[in-house]
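hey so i finally got around to running the thing on that chain from the lab meeting. sorry it took forever, my laptop kept dying and i had to restart like 3 times. anyway pasting the input first so we r on the same page abt which one it is
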Amino acid sequence: ANSSISLTKTCIEVSLGAPDEKQVSVEDYQYDGGFLAPFFGRLASYNRRANHLLLDNYRRLKDDEINAPRPAFFGSILATLNHILVGDQAWLARLHGDPPPGRALDHILCHTLSALITARELQDDEITAYVKGLTELEFAATIRYQNMSGVDFENSVSVVLTHMFNHQTHHRGQVHDMLSQTSVPPPELDFIFFIREASAS
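ok and heres what got predicted. didnt touch it at all, straight out
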């Protein structure tokens, strides 16, 4: 595993200041030939962009809002965001050929919003770098891994990435709904708006 994985296995406490003014680039991911590489490159870029838009809204939430019990599977905004992070770390470890950290799916990695934001940004950078570094043939390669119960499975890299991005979208939708129940309106996250933004830039 490369050194960047260790950065995402723990949360880093930072002071919660103003939103980062750095622009998140909307990358097209230029590849020579093939379909899978540009397709997943675009998904990785969209995934990072969607998370970034939500992070700016999280910064405007009060602590009691992000931790408040809500009618969602993991019970709160912060707990759901932690679940997404735990899932990403498990799948990315498998993609690298490493055993996942072995945490429960409801494990709270980050107990504060500032820690969660830092960990999320690091994780998205790592996912993007991993996808961008794959060749067309590597997307079709088969990986073998065990699920949380120790059962053996094998899938192609492209199938695992599809699951990982779909898993994020599913739970990001839950967070989007919970955010609409707070004083902070949720941002527009539709993929088509991301594509239009990319085309206009």
